[in-house]
TrEMBL record:
Identification of the protein by name: LicD family protein
Example GO biological process: glycoprotein metabolic process
A Pfam family that the UniProt record links to this protein: LicD
Segments passing through the bilayer: none
LicD/FKTN/FKRP nucleotidyltransferase domain sequence ranges: 28-258
Length: 287
């Protein structure tokens, strides 16, 4: 099995993230905002009724209109130990998706070990946008959104940890650092990059397409779903709370992961290998 770090720390991260998830669920119910557990978090709910045992984060996704409502309307309703962080709140925020996090906490994965912006420990919030029916238009849109998203990441992370070794690592590091420096020299802001990404991601949102996708990823089609596959969502246990899961979760997860009910090989049981974790104002009930 890949190195997963301190099991006690992992359990504490999972407890903290569950508390954030409970707060998100409470506020979404109060505001009638749609969301579903996403990716590995959805597998966790279905297969484990909680976290995948080695997982160290929670992801949810929302249709764009619900996502934007959450960013605007959730903050005044949150308990004081939680905060929403996004481009709306922090112009130097280096990611195209928001996070609901614990105040004064930090969670830095190994890939972003040199990132200047300290993202809080919490839940990643992914907006879902419409995928056009025209395949050529979609491929162009997908490629453009990925470029803007990667530039945004490199703007905030001069030398990301790629996992490469040898000459490939040296070359990648040089390219990434040059890109980062070029953006700085040209005074390109994270906000400008985000606006370009958002313009591309939302390009077809008024077309009436029934298919939603996550343009924060390199392959939005793999993680796409018809709106009626997601909603109305269903409730499932997640540890000692309940969360929303896609109505047709089996179809969605099979499309993204294949045989998701079987555990992957041990060498694929990896997490974000965080290099910095702090819990801020969160109080651990087990301490």
């Amino acid at each position: 099995m890949a190195e997963l770090g301190d099991p006690q720390l992992l359990a504490k991260i999972q407890r903290a993230a569950t508390d954030v998830l409970a707060e998100l669920d409470r506020v979404c119910q109060e505001l009638d905002i749609r969301y579903v557990a996403y990716g590995g978090s959805a597998i966790g709910a279905v297969r484990h009724q909680g976290f995948i045992p080695w997982d160290d984060d929670v992801d949810v996704c929302m249709p764009r209109e619900d996502y934007e409502r959450f960013l605007r309307e959730a903050p005044p309703l949150l308990a004081p130990e939680f905060e929403v962080v996004s481009q709306l709140t922090h112009p130097d925020y280096p990611r195209p998706f928001g996070v609901l996090g614990i105040v004064d906490s930090v969670f830095t994965p190994s890939v972003a070990r040199n990132r200047a912006f300290q993202v809080p420990l919490g839940i990643d919030l992914f907006p879902l946008d419409r995928i056009p029916k025209d395949r050529r238009a979609f491929k162009r849109q997908s490629a453009e959104s990925w470029v803007w998203g990667r530039l945004m990441f490199l703007h905030g992370t001069p030398t990301p940890d790629t996992g490469l070794t040898g000459p490939a690592k040296t070359l990648a590091k040089a390219v990434f650092h040059a890109t980062h420096q070029g953006l700085k020299v040209l005074h390109v802001s994270a906000s400008h990059l985000y606006r370009q990404w958002e313009k591309v991601a939302t390009r077809y949102n008024n077309t009436g397409s029934p298919v939603l996708g996550d343009y924060c990823t390199q392959d939005p089609l793999r993680w796409s779903a018809r709106e009626d596959e997601l909603f109305p969502s269903i409730r499932m246990p997640f540890g000692d709370i309940e969360v929303e899961v896609a109505r047709k979760f089996d179809a969605v997860l099979t499309r993204g992961y294949g045989d998701y009910m079987n555990l992957p090989p041990e060498d694929q049981r990896v997490n974000h290998a965080a290099v910095e974790v702090s819990f801020g104002v969160w109080q651990d009930p087990e301490q």
